[in-house]
Design goal:
With 208 residues, this protein is α+β, with helices and mostly antiparallel strands. The protein is built from six helices and eight strands. Helices cover 32% and strands 31% of the residues. The strands form two sheets. It has a five-stranded antiparallel β-sheet with strand order 1-2-3-6-5. A three-stranded antiparallel β-sheet has the order 4-7-8, with no helix packed on it.
C-alpha cells in the first residue's frame, strides 16, 4: 500500500488536532451540575479572595450609570453554580473546608441565578414593601426564547441613616433550573413604566 507523502500526512495530523481542539472549545461553558473537581476548584478560587478572584467574578456582573429617575437599575449579576461557590467561599472565610464544600454542593442541584439591583431615592420616598419597587419593572431572561424562572425572591439590603432604617438598594432574584439553560449567550432585559431600559448580555459558553 502506498502511503501519502510526509507533507500530506503532516497536514492531515494538524487538521485532526485542530478539529479536536475546536470540539473541545465548542463543548466548553458552564456546568449545569458540578463535579467534585469543579467544586474544589471554585472553592479554592473563592478562598484566595484576591485580585484573581475579583477579575474572575467581574465577568458575571454588568453595571449601569446612575440615573435621576428613582428607582433605577444599577447592576445585574448572573451567577452560575460555579460562581455561587466562589462567592460563598470568598464571603465566609470562617466556616467550611473543601471537603465540606464537596458534600454541600455535590448533593444538590444548584440553580442559575439572575439578580437585578435597583437603587431608591430618599427615605421620604421609600416604598412600604419591596414589591412596590419591583412593580415598576418588567424583567425578561432569554436565550433566543424566553426562560421561565422556577423561583422569584425580593432581597432587601438595609443601611442606617440617622435613626431610621432605609434602602441603599434592593435586589430582585430569579432562579432558573440549569437543565433549561444552555451553554450559550443569555440576555437579561429590564424595562420600566417611566421609560428606563437596560440590557445585560452574558455568554455562558465562555463562563464557568
Amino acid at each position: 500500500m502506498a502511503w501519502p507523502p510526509i507533507r500530506g500526512r503532516f497536514r492531515f495530523a494538524c487538521l485532526v488536532i485542530f478539529l479536536i481542539a475546536l470540539a473541545s472549545l465548542t463543548s466548553s461553558g458552564y456546568q449545569q451540575r458540578l463535579d467534585s473537581e469543579a467544586i474544589r476548584e471554585a472553592f479554592s478560587l473563592g478562598r484566595r479572595s484576591d485580585q484573581t478572584t475579583g477579575v474572575f467574578l467581574s465577568k458575571y456582573v454588568k453595571t449601569f450609570p446612575a440615573m435621576e429617575k428613582w428607582p433605577h437599575v444599577g447592576r445585574i449579576d448572573l451567577l452560575t453554580p460555579y460562581a455561587q461557590i466562589v462567592y460563598d467561599a470568598k464571603d465566609d472565610l470562617q466556616n467550611n473546608n473543601v471537603l465540606d464544600a464537596e458534600q454541600k454542593y455535590g448533593s444538590v442541584d444548584m440553580p442559575l441565578i439572575v439578580r437585578v439591583q435597583a437603587f431608591w431615592a430618599t427615605l421620604s420616598d421609600l416604598p412600604t414593601e419591596d414589591k412596590d419597587v419591583w412593580g415598576h419593572f418588567e424583567i425578561s431572561v432569554s436565550q433566543g426564547h424566553s426562560l421561565t424562572p422556577k423561583k422569584r425572591a425580593w432581597l432587601p439590603y438595609y443601611v442606617t441613616r440617622g435613626e431610621m432604617p432605609g434602602f441603599d438598594y434592593i435586589v430582585y432574584e430569579l432562579q432558573f433550573d440549569t437543565k433549561t439553560v444552555a451553554s450559550a449567550p443569555i440576555t437579561i432585559d429590564v424595562s420600566s413604566r417611566d421609560g428606563q431600559h437596560v440590557e445585560a448580555k452574558f455568554d455562558l459558553s465562555k463562563l464557568k
